[in-house]
Amino acid sequence: MRLIAAGGGQVCLELDVREDQTQHHGFVHGGIIGAMADTACSWAAATVAGDVVTASYTLQFHAPATTALLCVHAAVIKQGKRNVSVEARVLAVDDNGAERRVATALALIAVVGAG
């Protein structure tokens, strides 16, 4: 993954998809999409809360990812003392730059040392 931008509760990451990251139908494996969403959510939370870990996340798949480039945008929804709620949108980007949402994640990110 490449970090494209980070700050102010937001993160953008990109990934050049390799063939070994696809499943038997040729779609990007859900584990890759989940890892991108989880990473983006925790990094977005870290920009406002410091040291964090993922407490939980849910991931909904909307369409198969078949492009050579994936992008994820994550943004903090609400910041508390102990937890940060974050949403991520995972997008497939085609050769013309057109984006299509392939998944959405909602994450609860725990602030390390908060208590």
Can you tell me the overall shape? elongated
**Most strands sheet:** 6 strands, antiparallel
Spatial ordering of strands, largest sheet: 1-2-4-5-6-3
The counted number of beta strands is 6
From the N-terminal CA to the C-terminal CA, the straight-line distance is 32 Å
In terms of DSSP E residues, the strand content is: over 45%
Question: What does it look like?
Answer:
There is one protein chain. The chain is of the alpha+beta class and 115 residues long. The chain is built from one helix and six strands, in the order ββαββββ. It has a six-stranded antiparallel sheet with strand order 1-2-4-5-6-3, covered by helices on one side. A hairpin with a 2-residue loop joins strand 1 and strand 2 (10-16). The longest helix is centred in the middle third of the chain and has 20 residues, at 30-49. The termini are far apart.
